[in-house]
Design a protein that fits this description.
Blueprint (H helix, E strand, L loop, with lengths): L2 H42 L1 H34 L1
Amino acid sequence: MKKETATTLRAFLIELAVYAVLVVGYFLLVLHFLGDWLYQLEIRHRYTYAGVAILLIIGQAVVLESVTTSLLRLIRGRSE
């Protein structure tokens, strides 16, 4: 395997592991802190619930991408 391919594969696996940990953590935090409120919102205000859910998804994507990018820059800086 070429060195460049091995480096890319290693970075991908690290990013995948970091994403997995962050997504599970995010899910547990939202479930713990917002679970009851989201459930009540779903029952009583379906359209508001849909909007809040979409905003949570977008927020998750933005935050996870920035955190992962920062961590990978930190990791790459140490390995080079």
